[in-house]
Specification:
The complex is a heterodimer. By secondary structure, chain A is an alpha+beta fold. Helices cover 71% and strands 8% of the residues of chain A. By secondary structure, chain B is an alpha/beta fold. Chain B has a 6-stranded mixed beta sheet, sandwiched between helices. Classes of the chains: A alpha+beta, B alpha/beta.
């Protein structure tokens, strides 16, 4: 108990003495982890936006919610017999509603405004020939069938979203990796300065027989705290990305598929926890390097 | 208590500090290390505390071959050894009592032990009334007493002293030597490097003289030269 108190006291004192460098280290951690988080969320948003088009699905035939059984059977017959169709999945009203619920989990008012009854059932179709020309031709044929509400082809929209999200999230991630490196170095330097400021004390501690770990722990704690505080500051940025940036895409009409560009609140919290772990780890590694390089017997 | 067998130490730039030094110091002895500057006195002391490692030969301290000691065990060796310096090495931001307590705190002694031992040791060195002063409010002799208190508060087996009276005037030095003598009489082995002819000649204890890294004289009840 006394030892714990000793570690805490020494750590807080050291941070206080070294405030300007400490703030620089903490803010760098915050910015870099904010970028890591933004990158993860944009990637996740894109994956959710394009979820319907995973695993080779090239186009989706949406039926009218009130299409009758004959119309449905006709479509199904074409799908079952045509050699141009490799496979398909039928998403009934209930399944469509479930998916809608997941995609818009953070917009309960939107979910409440619909019922399974009004959801259009759909066929997700994998054609044998996936060229754009063929897919467009098939889509044209299906949209002419009775009972079909619309046909969504993957090619254009998916390509746009994939392109956009991959580029943005990769750019952010590269910047983030560089900055994470910079923050580890800054923490290393801050801890090194803290060690310098206490050189005399450390000398005495070694002489009277304090163990290496006893000397190291306050400094490692200090670095870890820098990382954790930085990560904590980055978390609000995640909510800003969620509420402002992703929301902007959802509301834009330029690309209809962006409407699915959302992450559930749970994902934002999960990401926050990862950022805290990452921040703590960066701080611990930075300070561990500092103490092993400058503190040996 | 301390045994050196053919110990040599060469610093970078091929300065030979000690050459084939052998000596044995019994428990409870008081030993002066004398010799001109650069003769290897400080190296002798630093080797015993494992601040330096010998290049060859064997050093036994308190029954341990300290050349073979794993580095994580070195702190535990140092808890058996008190160490005082010419420049005291006190922490100026801590009071006298805090400086002494610091030596116990950082080796994990419980607080109730610290609360008991610090006043007792300050009493022993004659600084009870100055416990709440800061080092820069004290005279040189008083500061050295604080450093002795810090070195001895953990009741080490051995007390190493590197020119402890080097910065003090003769009358103050006498007081410090009385204190070291008292500590020695309680059973602690004392090894003290010094230039102070007056002290060595008055005390008449064992004298080991070093010259350019070699032991040139070792006599009990010796004088400076």
């Amino acid at each position: 108990m006394y030892r714990l108190w000793y570690y805490l006291r020494e750590t807080v004192l050291s941070i206080w003495r070294n405030l300007s460098l400490t703030l620089a280290a903490i803010l760098t951690v915050a910015v870099s982890l904010g970028l890591v988080g933004a990158s993860l969320m944009i990637r996740e948003g894109a994956e959710r936006a394009t979820a319907q088009f995973q695993e080779g699905v090239e186009f989706i035939v949406f039926m009218n919610p009130d299409a009758d059984l004959d119309q449905d059977a006709a479509i199904r017959h074409v799908l079952d017999t045509s050699p141009t169709i490799e496979s398909y999945d039928y998403i009934d009203k209930a399944a469509a509603y479930d998916e809608f619920e997941t995609l818009f989990a953070d917009k309960p008012e939107l979910v409440e405004s619909v019922t399974p009854d009004v959801m259009p059932p759909s066929y997700r179709i994998v054609p044998t020939d996936r060229s754009a020309a063929n897919v467009n031709e098939l889509a044209r044929q299906f949209s002419a069938q009775p009972g079909v509400r619309e046909v969504a082809t993957a090619t254009e929209a998916i390509r746009q979203i994939d392109d956009f999200s991959t580029r943005v999230s990769q750019a952010l991630l590269i910047a983030a990796v560089v900055l994470v490196g910079v923050s580890a170095l800054l923490i290393l330097n801050t801890v090194f300065t803290a060690i310098g400021a206490r050189r005399q004390e450390i000398e005495v501690m070694k002489l009277v027989g304090a163990t290496n770990w006893f000397i190291r722990i306050p400094f490692m704690l200090e670095g870890t705290i820098h990382g954790l505080i930085g990560a904590a500051l980055a978390i609000p940025a995640l909510f800003v990305v969620d509420n402002e940036v992703l929301a902007f895409f959802q509301e834009s009409d330029a690309v209809p598929l962006f409407r699915g560009f959302a992450v559930p609140d749970g994902y934002v919290w999960d990401t926050s926890i990862w950022l805290l772990i990452l921040g703590g780890a960066v701080g611990m590694v930075g300070s561990a390097i500092a103490v092993t390089r400058y503190l040996d017997v | 208590m301390i045994r050196l067998e053919g110990v040599s130490k060469v610093y970078k730039g091929s300065v030979t500090a000690l050459r084939e030094v052998s000596a044995e110091i019994q428990r409870g002895e008081f030993v002066f290390l004398v010799g001109p500057s650069g003769s290897g006195k400080s190296t002798f002391i630093r080797l015993l505390n494992r601040e330096e490692v010998a290049d060859s030969g064997r050093i036994m301290v308190a029954g341990k071959d300290i050349g073979a000691l794993r580095s994580w065990k070195v702190p535990y060796l140092r808890r058996e050894i008190g160490y005082i310096f010419q420049d005291y090495k006190l922490l100026n931001k801590k009071t006298v009592a805090e400086n002494v307590a610091f030596g116990l705190e950082v080796i994990g002694r419980p607080r109730n032990v610290i609360r008991k031992q610090v006043p007792a040791i300050l009493e022993l060195v004659g600084l009870s009334t100055k416990a709440e002063r800061f080092p820069d409010e004290l005279s040189g002799g008083e500061q050295q007493r604080v450093s002795i208190a810090r070195a001895f508060v953990n009741r080490p087996l051995i007390l190493l002293a590197d020119e402890p009276t080097g910065n003090l005037d003769p009358s103050t030095s006498v007081g410090i030597m009385r204190l070291l003598d008292r500590i020695n009489r309680s059973g602690t082995t004392v090894v003290m490097a010094t230039h102070d002819r007056g002290i060595v000649d008055t005390m008449r204890r064992r004298v080991i003289e070093l010259d350019r890294g070699v032991v040139v004289r070792d006599e009990s009840r010796g004088v400076y030269e």
